[in-house]
Write a structure and sequence with these properties.
It is built from 4 helices and 7 strands; from the N terminus they run E-E-H-E-E-H-E-E-H-H-E. By secondary structure, the protein is an alpha+beta fold.
Length: 209
């Protein structure tokens, strides 16, 4: 299967895991450019359309799934996998923003409830996205088996209380342009824009999953 999403960098902070991802040159940037691929994702995760997503298109992800950035879809898929593990007690809130207007690189930020769990969910979602948008060749991804594997992976890790504590990078400052997402919540997560960052494009709409 062709590599659709390249996870370039992952930064684990005290509160957030922030991944820098790049969409392949030959891949679409918008779901509207490949509705068959978008439908494959829906068939894998039909409940994804019920995520609250408060933006210009409407109040749920259903309203924009057919015409949104693949990086946005990737975040929703990651959140869906995390929610299905039942290992995250609080609302899963994250952000996605494009690095440069002319680039194919995005940053995806999620609460670091468990770095292995979040990184594993993101990697699994990226694999499923690649399958969906490269023709759906090969076996259909088994979402429940993937979720079960994530749970077993985390449960098989040593108790962090018994391990020496390693230093982690401090969390990056909130970006001026982002989309705010939460799973299963209707509250908006407002943040102030950073007006001093000249490298960013127009401010993106805030959303909630």
């Amino acid at each position: 299967m062709a590599e659709l999403v390249d996870i370039i960098r992952v930064v684990v902070g005290t509160e957030y895991l922030t991944a820098t991802v790049r969409i392949a040159d030959e891949a679409p940037l918008m779901t509207s450019e490949d509705l068959e691929g978008t439908t494959r994702v829906y068939n894998l995760m039909p409940t994804i359309i019920d995520h609250a997503c408060l933006g210009d298109a409407g109040s749920t992800f259903r309203d924009c799934m057919g015409n949104t950035e693949l990086a946005h879809l990737l975040e929703h898929m990651t959140v869906e996998l995390l929610a299905r593990t039942n290992m995250v007690e609080e609302v899963i809130a994250g952000r996605t923003w494009r690095e440069l207007a002319y680039d194919r690189t995005y940053s995806i930020q999620l609460p670091c409830v468990d770095d292995v769990l979040v990184a594993g969910a993101l990697s699994s979602a990226a694999w499923m996205l690649s399958w969906a948008f490269t023709g759906g060749q090969g076996p259909v991804p088994d979402v429940e088996a993937t979720v079960s594997g994530l749970v077993q992976l985390v449960q098989g890790l040593p108790d962090p209380a018994q391990e020496p504590q390693a230093e982690v990078d401090s969390d990056p400052e909130p970006m001026a342009e982002y989309e705010s997402y939460e799973y299963g919540s209707g509250r908006d997560d407002e943040r102030d824009a950073n007006e001093d960052d000249p490298d960013r494009g127009p401010r993106m709409s805030q959303k909630i999953i």
